[in-house]
Design goal:
Length: 395
């Protein structure tokens, strides 16, 4: 017997991009102290008020099967949130609750793509994107962005790649780069989607983490609501990563089919998790700002530290919990630099190459440890890069 090609080729037959992370975790398991700046996991737990709401719901009996599309309360709450933020009329009929943003990404591509269809995504990308596309039987095709453009996508290059494609996946604020797509960028993307008749899948899980500019959902642009599938999540906005609660916002006729898919796959999200999510969203911007504030603060620290040296260059960090740093002056690839930093200083960062070809020679730094430790680690990284750059110049 053989396993399916679909399951054995989720990573395209190559590395899944997590080698440095896995090595850091092995070192930790061996008792070696490692400073982890790798994954997007908050250094604070889920807020006590959210946990209290979750506990009250579970103790109150909401532990059986929940409605597959999501509870009416949470679907209404998500719809109201999205309508308030975008100005686009939205009801529960547009909302499917999913087990996290990753399940929403899979479902969105299952809705948009037939087996063998080409699905576009932008490079650099979150590590699961191409595998998610392959998982629904589609062909994953990357469109590179450029460090010289601060990784803002070029509509002309998307258009050139779009012949025969059926969908485009974007992410703003962006993981891994920290870039927030400008209105001009999004309007260009929207025009390509309309010209090429593409579904636009918009991953907006970092929409509460914007440090410069504004978050614009492409669903709010003219004539885009009917072709845009928006992915959202409680993970980043409310430090509920382990709760696995997300959603898709889509045209109502699409949501009907997505509910059928959920019925045959995930069968919904636990009711007590949904009740906690409803509570958290109803708490409004004050709670969201409290959870995002550490990253805003550390981004300011990073800007100061990086501005005082010239060995490492930061891609403009406008949002999300990450920094994308250009380390090409050292003469090393991002992967080689990350491994050397881990070996020499026991600091773990993600190589840019983990997120595609466009970020080669860069590393991604997660701002997910306390301020002092973060500042010390970043200064060490810069000093290490300076030593390598000097060695290269003097060789």
């Amino acid at each position: 017997m053989k396993l399916s090609h679909r399951i054995t080729h989720l990573t395209g037959g190559g590395s899944d991009g997590w080698g440095v992370f896995y090595r850091a975790r092995r070192m930790i398991s061996e008792g070696i102290a490692v400073v982890e700046l790798t994954i997007g996991e908050h250094d604070i737990p889920t807020h006590p008020s959210i946990l209290a709401a979750m506990n009250d719901s579970a103790v109150g009996g909401h532990t059986g099967y929940a409605m597959v599309p999501g509870t009416a309360l949470l679907r209404d709450t998500v719809a109201a949130r999205v309508q308030t933020r975008t100005g686009v009329p939205t009801t529960r009929d547009n909302v499917l609750i999913t087990p996290g943003g990753q399940a929403a990404l899979f479902a969105a591509h299952a809705a948009a793509c037939n087996a063998g269809d080409t699905a576009l995504y932008l490079d650099p990308y979150y590590a699961t994107y191409p595998g998610t596309i392959r998982g629904v039987g589609a062909v994953a095709k990357a469109v590179q962005t450029h460090a010289g453009d601060a990784f803002q996508p070029r509509a002309s290059e998307i258009d050139a790649a779009a012949e025969g494609a059926v969908s485009l996946l974007i992410n703003s604020p962006n993981n891994p780069t920290g870039v927030v797509y400008s209105r001009e960028t999004l309007e260009g993307i929207a025009e390509v989607c309309k010209k090429r008749d593409l579904w636009l899948i918009s991953d907006e899980v970092y929409d509460t983490q914007v440090w410069e500019g504004e978050h614009i959902s492409p669903r709010a642009l003219p004539d885009m609501a009917e072709r845009t599938l928006v992915v959202g999540s409680m993970s980043k906005s409310h430090a509920m990563t382990g709760s696995r609660c997300g959603w898709i916002v889509a045209p109502a006729e699409v949501t009907e089919h997505l509910i059928n898919l959920a019925t045959h796959t995930t069968y919904g999200v636990p009711g007590f998790i949904q009740d906690a999510a409803s509570f958290a969203l109803s708490a409004g911007r004050e709670l969201e700002d409290e959870i995002s504030e550490p990253f805003r603060r550390r981004r300011a620290l990073a800007t100061e530290i990086l501005g005082a040296q010239n060995a490492v260059t930061m891609i403009p960090s406008q949002g999300a919990m990450y920094l994308m740093l250009d380390v090409r002056a050292t003469g090393l690839t991002g992967e080689a630099f990350a491994n050397a930093l881990l070996d020499t200083h026991h600091i773990a960062v993600m190589p840019g190459e983990s997120f595609g070809k466009a970020a080669a020679g860069h590393v991604r730094v997660a701002m997910t440890i306390d301020d002092d430790a973060f500042a010390n680690a970043l200064r060490t990284l810069c000093s290490f890069a300076a030593v390598l750059s000097d060695q290269r110049e003097n060789a």
